[in-house]
């Protein structure tokens, strides 16, 4: 039995043969091109200008690799918090949470949010562990190479690239379909134009530009979401939260949900909802842990900012899919039978739902063209911000882990920057081509949302063990993710064939095959790794991580010299200094690690056990009072999120803002670019930890 409606392809207007199912775009096609092209390039030029200003006033020179890739490891808590929320605020988070809310009722958005927050907080533990053990790392893959050598490094390169490709395709498919439905813009044009502006500002600004756009985009998105929380209940057909309860209760009677308690939309007792939740949390752990972009942001944060930023970001993020998914999916269910709804007099087709059109249609229903513009804007903001993170992630793999390691070991700072730029352009173009191929293969947002865990999960436990468990052997690290990937794919395809008698896009997108495949892909590598590790035990010395110098020297001589300079090994004096610094700051980092571990456990048990399971097990159908409290709390929480991501970075970064302002106000004064000596001092501070 499938708990997700059958898949379709393309936009509603393009894919339906039934003329009665065609929905006219709410906005002219020109609006789509203006937002995607004009606004996209306007933001890109603003970010390029911001990069120039930061270079002139704060000495942040993006021609240096340490600045381009890791922002000199100095990003403060506020900006990191905003970037953390943005990293998980994919266009699919907004489109997907409303999709599952429409399909499963109130359980869908909750499980969507609960599938994200625990791993955001858990990443604080991984981030602070990396800061302690490999303070000069630029990518996750450098850590893997040092511990497991070339074979392990190559395996992780493949796993991480698969993860990035699937992730960006998932984003582009959903965003392009929604933009095409809202404006009539050709879906392929949207697919190719969306990454264009992103490539431009990432090419110039590197990771700091990504942080700045993360902040701007996330602030705008949360403002729009807060606007929708008000607009929903000023619609004549939905006068209050209690009135919405009446409408949803009636919808459950007219269109009962298969697998829900009494077919109601107002219950956490939903088979489809909890199965989606299992897929979602495992797939998200894979997407995050195997995405080097998340590690790059952790490496870029100041040591004292990592744990507070990820904990705060995890708490703040939860409200977005929970509140937005609940309100917009229930708005769609409430208004489907009225003339306000774009599909009236019919319900949404399975193709429209699977393409993620619940959110734009609901926004149009409550706010008309203004709602369409709002959704177009936040989808554009979300997809471009996350594309930037994916592009910088793949760029880091190409420059540091492929070029610097296997093509030119003696690469200079300039060489690495050049290949970082090549990686940015290449992956931006490749992602558009790959998403286009999936579109013409009848693959849509719903399919990728369910199956991506099969491909992204095999590296979860081997990666976590690499950072946190010294007993994992080299053989276990190399073999277990490959066996896990093979196991997951075999289970996925095998169960799809067993349930449907065929292996097609529709069959492999069914819920149960995706659940079985994702669970096998995620958990089997843990078993394989433990067995192999104890058969051939290891006892890795964490100090070995710090024996290799990973930071690039970028002095003026090497920048202008035609003779490549090999990255030097640490001197005996430097090694002794590192050992002393490590021991001196070990307790401090362990303290942060304990806080991160405690919050990770608390978040998981709170969001997955203490809060939802009693409601699920009781078969409780929400009363009007309980539903009202549920919605009101989610609205208050999302407004709090808006203040955290919008104003906290300004307060926390006020010193640098004033520095930039004074630099701009000073005429005839030039702030000197950070010298190599100062740059090396930054690295030294990073090695030593925080005071």
From TrEMBL:
It is found in: Membrane. It is a multi-pass membrane protein. PROSITE patterns: NA_SOLUT_SYMP_3 (PS50283). Keywords: Membrane, Transmembrane, Transmembrane helix. GO terms for molecular function: urea transmembrane transporter activity. GO terms for cellular component: plasma membrane. CDD domains: SLC5sbd_DUR3 (cd11476). Pfam families: SSF. The chain crosses the membrane at residues 30-54, 75-104, 110-132, 153-173, 179-204, 274-295, 315-335, 356-381, 419-441, 447-469, 481-503, 515-535, 596-617, 629-651. InterPro entries: DUR (IPR031155), Na/Glc_symporter_sf (IPR038377), Na/solute_symporter (IPR001734). Belongs to the sodium:solute symporter (SSF) (TC 2.A.21) family. This is Sodium:solute symporter family-domain-containing protein. It comes from Corynascus novoguineensis.
